[in-house]
Design brief:
Blueprint: H1 6-10, H2 18-32, H3 41-57, H4 60-69, H5 72-75, H6 91-94, H7 102-105, E1 128-134, H8 136-141, E2 143-154, E3 170-171, E4 180-185, E5 188-193, E6 202-203, E7 216-227, E8 236-239, E9 255-261, E10 268-270, E11 273-281, H9 282-287, E12 289-294, E13 300-305, E14 314-317, E15 333-340, H10 347-360
Parallel strand pairs: 1-9, 11-15
Antiparallel strand pairs: 2-7, 3-6, 4-5, 8-9, 10-11, 12-13, 14-15
Helix pairs in contact: 2-3
Length: about 375
């Protein structure tokens, strides 16, 4: 056995959390598991080394003793680390990962997902995700959408049993209906998905022709979704019970609608505020006036432009932005002014501008032409 420290063996820092330690050991156990590396003595030693390290670091008292005294602090009463007192039941560490070892023992996948085996007994159906494009107007005002989704539903021909009419599933003789079998090798034992029934706990001699023994068939359903005012890109709306039907009579999963707000030709959204640009003439910028500004609800707002307004100046229209989702109030609408400089002037306009320049003490009239000299 290596003299390396336990933290080094697992590849974690001394301050690693329990979850980090568990995750690190899980990766090493899968990589060096003897059943995956038959005849490889080096892999077997690394597996034992990782197991010994995890056995200590997963226990708060042993870890504290190890941190203070090293291996001597934990081996004195531990029976020599890996061996009789070692961690041999993998159901704890791998219980939440859907039979990780099934990938090299030949079993099916975990429950609740399409394809692969499912554990025996009622299982909750898979959740579904639907990406919905929403216009900025609908995000601001709210709207009901009608969407069509494909999902797995209980087979009506066999009522979800998977067996054809007149027959029924029987208990799997290999796992006695548990959906799992235990294999013991040397110092450890591993619980894996039963390869015969693929975790279902039952075998079907005469499968239903409609669902081919799965108990579920794919259907397309139309669902009405109420999009509330104030949603933004990435908002998740949960529709309970509209996911896939659960295997073996289990409850249905949920449907999650994720909104994606489409780009608008006029408005730019920043949080709950709206940004819009409005072009005014040079004369209005100088003399002031009133303009009409579009709002997201399709109406127009009258905005007074004061004398001497500059290009880039911003005016705020309070409460004319996007509603706050699930709350009261709205954001604001900001109007950015752009002053348009005329490229061509009539004779009268030019005379008036020249008069304005003289009154201002400016020298103008070069026509924009200039000569550049280089040396």
């Amino acid at each position: 056995m290596s003299d390396r420290g336990y933290y080094e063996v697992l590849g974690v820092s001394k301050g690693a959390s329990d979850d980090e330690i568990k995750s690190a050991y899980r990766k090493l156990a899968i990589k060096y598991h003897p059943d995956k590396n038959k005849g490889d003595k080096e892999a077997e030693e690394k597996f034992k080394e990782a197991t010994e390290a995890y056995e200590v670091l997963r226990d708060a008292q042993k870890r504290a003793a190890y941190d203070q005294f090293g291996k001597a602090g934990v081996n004195a009463g531990a029976g020599g680390g890996y061996g009789a007192g070692a961690y041999t039941d993998f159901s704890d560490i791998f219980g939440d990962f859907g039979d990780i070892f099934s990938e090299f023992f030949g079993g099916g996948g975990g429950g609740g997902s399409r394809g692969g085996g499912r554990r025996s007994g009622p299982q909750r159906g898979s959740d579904l995700r639907y990406n919905l494009e929403v216009s900025l107007e609908d995000a601001a005002l709210g709207k009901e959408y009608k969407i069509e989704i494909p999902r797995l539903e209980t087979c009506v021909d066999c009522s979800g049993s998977g067996a054809s009419k007149g027959s029924s599933p029987t208990v799997c003789p290999d796992c006695s209906g548990t959906g799992q079998v235990r294999r013991t090798q040397g110092f450890f034992s591993v619980t894996t998905t039963c390869p015969r029934c693929k975790g279902k706990g039952k075998v079907i001699s005469n499968p239903c022709k409609t669902c081919k023994g799965e108990g579920l068939t794919e259907k397309r359903r139309t669902i009405h979704i109420k999009i509330p005012a104030g949603v933004e890109s990435g908002s998740r709306l949960k529709v309970s019970g509209e996911g896939e039907s659960g295997p073996n009579g289990g409850p249905s999963g949920d449907l999650y609608v994720v909104t994606h707000i489409k780009k608008h030709p006029t408005f730019e959204r920043q949080g709950n505020d709206l940004i819009v640009q409005k072009t005014i003439s040079l004369s209005m910028a100088c003399l002031g006036g009133e303009i009409e500004v579009p709002s997201i609800d399709g109406k127009t707002i009258n905005l007074k432009i004061p004398e001497g307004t500059e290009s880039g100046q911003i005016f705020r229209l309070k409460g004319h932005g996007i509603p706050y989702l699930g709350s009261y109030g709205k954001g604001d609408q900001h109007v950015i002014i752009k002053v348009e400089i005329p490229k061509k002037l009539s004779k009268k306009q030019k005379e008036l501008m020249e008069e304005f320049a003289r009154e201002s003490g400016e020298k103008v009239g070069s026509g924009g032409k200039s000569k550049l000299f280089f040396r």
